[in-house]
Specification:
Helices cover 80% and strands 0% of the residues. The protein contains 14 helices and no strands. The N and C termini lie far apart (64 Å).
Length: 365
């Protein structure tokens, strides 16, 4: 049987799709979002009836959903769409479990949100170029920058907290802790930045070369590329005649045709290659540094046990906030995720503190 949590997930998804529709400039894509909102709302209503609850018991959008909407207003709704794509996995699981328990047939669409979207696209007579644009947008936001910000801050906090506690254990929180913490912050942030720069730059250089080859093929042999587009659409379950029409329509816009070909044939999302490697490096540097400064800050003013306790308390708060932020993507309970993050972070710091203590005693002896 579905529970209130499953209903809440459906309500939140419907609410967020409706917000995406309100802020989407392309009317055809906005129509897709509106229909998705109706589908999710229909799921929620069906779940409510299944557990014999009246319509007035339908929950309102959760704090998590409203927070995601606020984030979308500030940073753009691609962040919201990326999170919704992850949420669809849990929605699919809920629908499948319900159908199995009630011995209803599982058709296959429950496990593939893209198929649902494609069915809506076909029924709405959306043009091929719009489908290409929507699919590009849909796939490009799965691993969004907001997620990277949370995880980057977490890396900085956990790694430097452990380092600071290890040195504090060896020195009883006296000399060297602040220096070690600042050195760990700088070394870690620089390492993250350099790694990000190399990763982005090398990927761009590799993919740009492959994309140039694909564009040359599109220009020199459009007939063959049109056939490839037809095959791509047919592989997605689109009828042959409609696939031919969509491929012909898309080929009129070489830019979008090129995007679809490099994405499907090479697995490359052209939108993700437009970012600056230098900006990505700076972004990574500051995200890591923000998390890493939290356990170091108390040692700028205090020393000894007081500094250790304050650093531990500040880091625990930071870990809880990061754990709570992660729930924006996972949908788990804020308290569960927050305290889980605190426990793991404190455990890592306790281990390094204990090791530092042993090393300190050994050196002193």
């Amino acid at each position: 049987m579905p529970d209130l949590r499953s209903i809440q997930t459906e309500v939140d998804a419907g609410y967020l799709y409706s917000q995406l529709a309100k802020h989407e400039e392309n009317e055809q894509v906005a129509d897709i979002f509106r229909q998705m909102s109706e589908i999710e709302q229909g799921h929620a209503e069906a779940f409510l009836k299944k557990i014999n609850l009246p319509a007035e018991k339908m929950p309102s959008p959760s704090f998590r959903a409203k927070t995601l909407n606020r984030i979308g207003k500030v940073f753009g709704y691609d962040y919201v769409l990326g999170t919704l794509m992850d949420t669809e996995k849990s929605l699919s699981s809920s629908v499948i479990n319900l159908k199995k328990k009630t011995k209803m047939p599982v058709t296959g669409t429950e496990t593939n949100h893209v198929k649902v979207l494609r069915n809506i696209v076909e029924n709405s007579a959306v043009s091929g170029s719009t489908i290409a644009r929507f699919e590009t947008k849909h796939r490009s936001v799965g691993g969004n920058a907001l997620r990277a910000a949370v995880l980057g801050g977490n890396d900085g906090l956990v790694s430097n907290f452990s380092l600071v506690m290890g040195v504090a254990g060896a020195t009883h929180g006296q000399e060297g802790v602040l220096l070690a913490g600042l050195a760990g912050l700088l070394a870690g942030a620089l390492s993250m930045a350099l790694g990000e720069w190399i990763s982005v730059k090398s990927s761009q250089e590799l993919y740009e070369n492959q994309m140039e080859i694909e564009m040359e093929e599109l220009q020199t042999s459009p007939e063959n590329e049109m056939k490839e587009l037809e095959l791509i659409y047919k592989a997605k379950g689109i009828p042959e005649q409609q696939a031919k029409e969509m491929a012909a329509q898309l080929l009129k816009d070489p830019e979008h045709a090129h995007e679809l070909l490099v994405k499907e044939e090479l697995g490359i999302n052209a939108e993700e290659l437009k970012g600056s490697a230098f900006e990505a490096a700076l972004y990574s540097f500051f995200l890591f540094a923000i998390g890493a400064i939290i356990p170091v800050f108390p040692f700028m003013f205090l020393s000894g046990t007081n500094a250790i306790l304050l650093s531990t308390a500040a880091s625990a708060v930071g870990l809880f906030v990061i754990g709570a932020a992660i729930t924006l993507f996972t949908g788990k309970s804020i308290w569960y995720s927050g305290f889980r993050q605190v426990i793991f972070g404190l455990a890592a710091a306790a281990i390094t503190f204990g090791i530092g203590k042993l090393i300190g005693v050994s050196v002193a002896g």
